[in-house]
Specification:
By secondary structure, this protein is an all-alpha fold. The protein is built from 21 helices and two strands. Helices cover about 75% and strands about 0% of the residues. Helix 1 runs antiparallel to helix 2 and helix 20 runs antiparallel to helix 21.
Length: about 425
């Protein structure tokens, strides 16, 4: 394996393992900023050693062991150490390759949930909570987070720095809260898990269209939350959404790793167990007797696709109605863009294009590649291939995901041959 290949592999491993490392280290040192630094120290050591000696059989266990050793060494060197810190250092076992897998669903998994609640503490502003949690839980760069929120990278970087400093200065506990305190933080926690799942479902950047492990972790955290707060319908709504969306993973890419769009997917290969689990979770949300919130509404939209045996049998009229409801609960240009797609499927591409054209003046969508992508798709359906080609090329120039760029350029090329 070449040095560049090794570095790419290490980067992929880091994206998978970094959240677990930071969660466990935060439990040990009780400082998120310091935990992130220690995790990066382990990454630097990995870059040095793995480039020379090769990647170990269980890189996650190797990184965890190295990071925890660094944490324990730091605690022992700390001039202000007291009996509490010494005891933590003595009682913190190192993970071996044999017991790493066993711990993923137990102690480490619980630490991830504690980390989310810690970073979603109300002492932080809403924007800071979400940005910091995405950085730590998904391993996203500030640039990737900025693109997700259509914000400046410098703004996101400042939010993350301030959030880490505030959590340290306020000595926020590393725990899952109870009672009203849990309820107060729940909406932000749900938002973070939702964004975490979305990043795995459609990666912001890189050479992979999907990152299933991130989705699996988000879904696992959602299921845990549903047991902790079974009386909250939106928790079940989010779980339902993630279950149903996860059912499509096998069909979202082909054998070459290329994206396969929803209407082209082989629905016979959708995971029926996950669909049944999702529909059951949606039913639990409905039975709690409150109006659907944004996650339950999105789950209901996904359920329409899941219940349709073929793309042609999709109930687009109901999906349009659900998007109308979603736009009232969660007004957003992105929701409007999705509604435009549904309108085009239910009533024709000309009606969808009218909505998309009205969104062209939305400043928040100026850097959003799916706006020209959707417009290009509607123009193709209207036979306006030259205009469509330009839209696909524009969208391709904006996306940071290599697989998505290839797809958009392929669609642009198809417009040329459609004449």
């Amino acid at each position: 394996m070449s040095l560049s290949d090794t570095h790419r592999t290490i980067d992929a491993i880091w994206r998978i393992e970094s959240a677990k490392l930071i969660a466990v280290l935060t439990r040990i040192v009780r400082d998120i900023g310091l935990a992130e630094d220690l995790a990066h120290d382990a990454l630097v050591i990995a870059l040095e050693q793995w480039s020379q000696n090769g990647i170990p059989n269980n890189p996650g266990a190797w990184l965890m062991t190295t990071a925890k050793r660094r944490a324990i060494d730091l605690i022992r060197r700390n001039k202000l150490r007291d009996q509490k810190y010494s005891e933590v250092a003595r009682n913190t076992d190192l993970y071996t390759e044999d017991d790493m897998d066993h711990n993923l669903d137990g102690e480490i998994g619980d630490d991830l949930l504690r980390l989310i609640f810690m970073t979603c503490h109300p002492v932080l502003p809403q924007e800071g909570r979400v940005a910091l949690t995405l950085r730590l839980l998904c391993g996203l760069t500030t640039d990737e987070i900025a693109r997700s929120f259509l914000a400046a990278e410098a703004t996101i970087a400042q939010r993350i720095v301030r959030a880490k400093r505030t959590l340290r200065d306020k000595d926020i506990p590393f725990e899952v809260p109870a009672g009203e305190e849990l309820t107060d933080r729940l909406s932000t926690v749900l938002e973070v898990i939702y964004l975490m799942f979305n990043e795995g479902y459609s990666a912001t950047s890189g050479n992979q269209w999907i990152r299933p492990l991130i989705c699996q972790e988000a879904l696992r955290l959602g299921r845990v939350l549903a047991e902790i707060v079974p009386y909250e319908p939106e928790v079940h709504g989010l779980v339902a959404l993630m279950e149903i969306q996860s059912s499509r993973f096998k069909t979202r890419v082909n054998s070459r790793g290329e994206p396969v769009l929803l209407m082209d997917q082989n629905r016979a290969e959708w995971d029926q167990l996950l669909i049944r689990r999702g529909l059951k979770a949606l039913d639990r949300s409905r039975k709690l007797g409150r109006p659907f919130g944004p996650y339950s509404l999105q789950a209901a939209i996904s359920a329409c696709h899941a219940k349709a045996p073929t793309a042609a049998e999709t109930d687009w009229i109901r999906i349009v109605a659900l998007y109308e409801a979603l736009s009232r609960v969660l007004p957003s240009p992105i929701v409007e863009l999705n509604r435009a797609v549904a309108v085009s499927m239910a009533f024709g591409p000309a009606f969808g294009l009218q909505i998309v054209d009205m969104l062209g003046n939305e400043s928040s969508l100026k850097g959003y590649h799916l706006l020209p992508s959707v417009r290009g798709d509607l123009l193709v359906k209207l036979g306006r291939f030259d205009e469509a080609r330009k839209e696909f090329e524009h969208a391709a120039s904006m996306t940071r995901n290599e697989r998505e760029r290839e797809l958009l350029l392929k669609r642009a090329a198809e417009c040329n041959s459609a004449h």
